[in-house]
Amino acid sequence: MPSKGEVFSLASNEAGAMEILEKIKPLLQGKIIGVQTASTGASFVDKYLKGVVEVREYKTTEEHDLDLAAGRVDVVMASMAYLTTASEKPGNEDMTTAGPRFQGGFLGRGSSVGLRKTEPELKAMFNDAITAAKADGTIKTLSEKWFGFDVTPL
């Protein structure tokens, strides 16, 4: 797959994301892709790969991993954080990540925290801490240590 590990934003660079998707589509033509039901991966495949791949939906990501290992699906789509840790589990030695990463747009910008609207000071504290951790490289350092790739927000 082209552009392994490169990040394409559906929010700030949708044209670039669409360009790489057009390069990937012929490589996926006729393949079977496993996704978790009602996930962003399922939404992505439905929006961008409909008619290109056959989709199999699973209740859990672990179920699509088993079908990948057994050869019943060719590809799975899930978050990079999940796939990085899943590929390190016993029995998944043949699993690897391939191709680009997509983020933004309906995929969001990552994880979130729910706060009460009545506590704007707490929200400001979170925002300040995230900004500082991004600026001093803490997010990059910790995410590379624990996930194997940089999750710093763009």
Shape: globular
Helix content: 40-55%
| Low-confidence region ranges | none
Tell me the distance between the termini.
Answer: 23 Å
Counting structural domains, the number is 2
Would you kindly provide a written description of the structure presented here, covering whatever features stand out?
- This protein has 154 residues and is α/β, with parallel strands linked by helices.
- It folds into two domains: 103 residues, Periplasmic binding protein-like II (D-Maltodextrin-Binding Protein, domain 2), CATH 3.40.190.10; 44 residues, no CATH class.
- Helices cover 43% and strands 12% of the residues.
- It is built from six helices and five strands; from the N terminus they run βαβαβαβαβαα.
- The strands form two sheets. Strands 3-2-4 form a three-stranded parallel β-sheet, sandwiched between helices. Strands 1-5 form a two-stranded parallel sheet.
- β2, α2 and β3 form a beta-alpha-beta unit.
- The longest helix has 16 residues.
- The mean pLDDT is 92.
